[in-house]
Design brief:
Layout (H helix, E strand, L loop, with lengths): L2 H11 L3 H15 L3 H6 L23 E8 L4 H12 L3 H9 L3 E7 L1 H14 L1 E5 L1
Antiparallel strand pairs: 1-2, 1-3
Helix pairs in contact: 4-5, 4-6
GO molecular function: mRNA binding; structural constituent of ribosome
Family: Belongs to the bacterial ribosomal protein bL12 family.
Pfam families: Ribosomal_L12, Ribosomal_L12_N
């Protein structure tokens, strides 16, 4: 990194929460951008994995995404009903979600909830995975 960027980073670290919020607001106005767009578009920060110790334990995953992979066409109505009951979506939204499989049904849910959702969808005739 150049010294200019390092200096900016150090200055940013010293900002209070209110100052940081004001900075974001000013950047949005100055450059005609929306800071919330990248978060809603699914773009996120993925920290680099550090592998200092080759024998380090692998952490057990605690949050899962339930993904509707596919479904039997003859069971489409049952799958729609299951998706609606699990997500609270309306008929049109649930139909669009089911027809656009593979699609995430539930994000960042506990292992128990994910397994329960998977079970209900599989009982309705869907092929589901947990990621």
């Amino acid at each position: 990194m150049t010294t200019k960027i390092e200096t900016i980073i150090e200055e940013l670290k010293s900002l209070t929460l209110l100052e940081a919020a004001e900075l974001v607001k000013q950047i949005e106005e100055t450059f005609d951008v929306d800071a919330s767009v990248s978060a809603s578009a699914g773009v996120g920060f993925i920290p680099a994995a550090t592998n200092n110790d080759a024998s380090s334990e692998v952490e057990e995953k605690t949050e899962f995404n339930v993904v509707l992979e596919e479904f039997d066409a003859s069971k489409k109505i049952a799958v729609l009903k299951a998706v609606r009951s699990l997500t609270g979506l309306g008929l049109k939204e649930a139909k669009e979600l089911v027809e656009s499989a593979p699609k995430v049904i539930k994000e960042n849910t506990s292992k128990e909830d994910a397994e329960e959702i998977k079970s209900k969808l599989e009982d309705a005739g869907a092929k589901v995975s947990m990621k």
